[in-house]
Design brief:
Elements: E1 8-15, H1 19-29, E2 33-40, E3 47-54, E4 57-64, H2 70-78, E5 81-88, H3 92-100, E6 106-113, E7 119-123, E8 132-137
Parallel strand pairs: 1-4, 5-8
Antiparallel strand pairs: 1-5, 2-3, 3-4, 6-7, 7-8
Length: 142
């Protein structure tokens, strides 16, 4: 298999039950700074998100806002904790095409653009030994 070129760590998504407690830990104990906070009620997302910068690394705290949220299902099945790891690629469509050419499958229903213009999709965890991997790009920042 050919390696995916020009990727870099973007952020880690953490599923939480209590946003206030999680924010307190990441800001007071780890010294992070809240850089954004928003709620996505889009079908298939339904999550409150707090983004924290910790010395240049980003963490997205994810609290479900409904029982149909994938974060709610994740917590029910696996408990709170690391939900996904995201890698930034120069061009999302090219990365998807390249990996599909190698037989890598994607969770097509996760493909979207968030409110900040970040385009993203999750790789099928069956192809990653169980870890949810997000690929993303920021076309507005080019």
């Amino acid at each position: 298999m050919k390696q995916l070129a020009h990727k870099q760590f973007d952020h880690m998504g953490i599923a939480v039950r209590q946003m206030e407690e999680a924010v307190s830990f990441y800001t007071n104990i780890l010294g992070g700074v809240i850089v954004d906070e928003y709620t996505s009620e889009a079908p298939g997302v339904e999550t409150h998100i707090t983004i924290i910068d910790i010395d240049g690394s980003r963490v997205e705290l994810l609290r479900p806002t409904s029982k149909t949220s994938p974060i709610h299902r994740f917590i029910q099945q696996k408990g709170k904790g690391v939900h996904h790891i995201a890698y930034k690629v120069p061009e999302l469509d090219e990365a998807i095409s390249e990996l599909k050419g190698q037989g890598i499958r994607f969770l097509e229903d996760t493909r979207r653009t968030n409110i900040h213009g970040r385009r993203l999709i999750y790789i099928n965890p069956a192809d990653t030994e169980g870890t949810i991997i997000e690929l993303c790009d920021y076309p507005d920042q080019k």
